[in-house]
Amino acid sequence: MTRHTAKPDIAPEPSNQNTVGRLIHVELDERTAVRRSPEVEHERTIAIYDLLEENTFLPLDGSGSPLASSGAEFRLHLGIEENRLRFDIRDATDSHIARIVLPITPFRRLVRDYFQVCESYYDAIKRLKPSQIEAIDMGRRGLHNDGSQMLIDRLANKVEMDFNTARRLFTLMCVLHIRG
Can you state the percent helix, strand and coil of the chain, rounding each to 5? Predict the structure, then answer.
C-alpha cells in the first residue's frame, strides 16, 4: 500500500474553527493505481493538502449519533475494492473506529462524465480562448458539485461533513477510479 500524505513545504496552520471533528491524515490505498497524468497527480496533491488544512468530518453510528466526542481527530484510509468505495476511519492513534463501504455503481456515470469534461478542460487550456475555457470549467465544477452532494447523501447517518470536505473526498474518489 502506498502512503500519500500531502506534505507541503510549509505545514498548514491549524484551523481556528470549532468543528465537530476533523481529519488529520488521509491515506489512499493505491494497490491498483496506474501511472497518472501530471494534472491528476496535481489534483490529488491539492485535494489532500486542502482537506488536511480545513475540513469537517465526524463518523456517526448509523442513527446519526457521533462515534467520538466533539473536536476529535481522525485518520482516513480511502480505497476501492470490489466496486466499493471503502472508508477506514481511525482515531489519532491509528486505532480502528469505523469502516464504511459504499457501492460505486451510483457514482459510475457521474465519474465517467466528470473525467470526460476534465479531459476537455485540460485540452482546452492548451488551445482555446479564456471564455471557452471558462464554459468548460463551469460544467466541470457542476459535475464535481453533483458528485460531492451525492457523496454527502450516500454517507448520511454515517459521516457528518461539510460540502468542501465532500468536494475534496470526491476528487480523491475520482483519482482512485483511474485505471489503466
Answer: 45, 25, 35
